């Protein structure tokens, strides 16, 4: 009989983590990542992304909940679960005094890959990471972007079915970042499921099919990237108002108008909508706009919308 529905590459259920200092880093996180997916975990600093990744890759103990990796329960069969995973941690953690080729071969050796086979794989991975010319230099002399690519090459040495990357492109300039995106796309296209965390919406947009946004230990949004992007078709402006703001604000169809402070209005409206409609309606109410600012960073803006005090009450 053919295998029916595939197990998720990652299945997390009601995951909670309280650190010794009582910080509740995860407050009940559930998510599924299907095989073959390219999945982004987005969230502001301190949201709990690295904690989640740490638990999945067995570096951090969970407080409660469960983790399954291709149907293997992490608590029940940690070693088998770990064999499915390649991890690229947030901090660079290889020995700077080793050569890239040795870093890769020794890592594979640790996971039981014979040396001859490891040498072959190292060449493939170093070439894919565009580091083949650097195979025998001291790793300390690699640039920041090269070090990050070396971390990816190392994680691929065990041919993981699930590659997990914690901010793989942090602090890397845009050109090198784009090069890394290509490498990751190739890896995904060859069948490896990828989960990455990032602060860059552009990165998630260019790479990922599905996304979860995590904030203060909770998932606040989850679904296909394009659904999320459709929500971003809303634009936000802050309007500086001359004089006071009247008690009653005009109702402008399709927009959400709120009072930001005594002399600032916050308006959210579809990108396609004409701003003049807003100005005209405000004018009719005797509200004079002195100046306006866009709320520019889309991801930051989205976080604020999803996680701010008014979350759930605004039309997004
Ligand atoms: N080892 C630890 N001991 C105590 N608290 C921790 C530990 N690691 C993380 N935390 C706390 O848990 C919360 C979540 O941290 P985490 O590193 O998971 O966030 P993050 O989403 O990865 O953030 P960033 O984007 O800055 O990397 C934070 O409040 C952090 O201070
Ligand atoms: Mg982190």
UniProtKB/TrEMBL annotation:
Residues 10-241 form the ABC transporter domain. Keywords: ATP-binding, Nucleotide-binding, Transport. It holds the Pfam family ABC_tran. Coiled coil: none annotated. One of its GO terms (molecular function) is ATP hydrolysis activity. This is ABC transporter ATP-binding protein. The lineage of its organism: Bacteria, Pseudomonadati, Pseudomonadota, Gammaproteobacteria, Lysobacterales.
């Amino acid at each position: 009989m053919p295998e029916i529905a595939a197990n998720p590459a990652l299945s997390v259920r009601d995951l909670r983590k309280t650190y010794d200092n009582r910080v509740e880093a995860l407050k009940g996180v559930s998510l599924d990542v299907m095989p073959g997916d390219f999945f982004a975990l987005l969230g502001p600093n301190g949201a709990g992304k690295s904690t989640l990744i740490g638990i999945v890759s067995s570096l951090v103990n969970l407080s409660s909940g469960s983790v399954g990796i291709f149907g293997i329960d992490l608590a029940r069969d940690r070693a088998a679960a770990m064999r499915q995973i390649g991890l690229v941690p947030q901090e660079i953690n290889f020995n700077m005094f080793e050569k890239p080729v040795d870093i890769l071969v020794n890592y594979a050796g640790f996971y039981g890959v014979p040396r001859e086979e490891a040498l072959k794989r190292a060449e493939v991975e170093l070439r894919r990471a565009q580091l083949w010319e650097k195979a025998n230099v001291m790793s300390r002399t690699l640039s920041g972007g090269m070090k990050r690519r070396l971390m990816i090459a190392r994680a691929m040495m065990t041919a993981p079915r699930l590659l997990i990357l914690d901010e793989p492109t942090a602090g890397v300039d845009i050109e090198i970042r784009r090069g890394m995106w290509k490498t990751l796309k190739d890896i995904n296209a060859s069948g490896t499921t990828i989960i990455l965390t990032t602060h860059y919406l552009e990165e998630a947009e260019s790479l990922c099919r599905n996304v979860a946004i995590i904030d203060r230990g909770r998932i606040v949004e989850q679904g296909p990237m394009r659904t999320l992007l459709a929500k971003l078709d809303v634009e936000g402006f802050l309007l500086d108002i001359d004089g006071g703001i009247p008690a009653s604000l005009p109702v402008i169809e399709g927009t959400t108008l709120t009072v930001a402070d005594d002399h600032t209005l916050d308006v959210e409206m579809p990108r396609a909508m004409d701003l003049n409609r807003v100005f005209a309606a405000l004018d009719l109410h005797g509200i004079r706009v002195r100046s306006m600012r866009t709320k520019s960073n889309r991801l930051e803006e989205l976080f604020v919308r999803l996680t701010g005090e008014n979350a759930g009450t605004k039309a997004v």
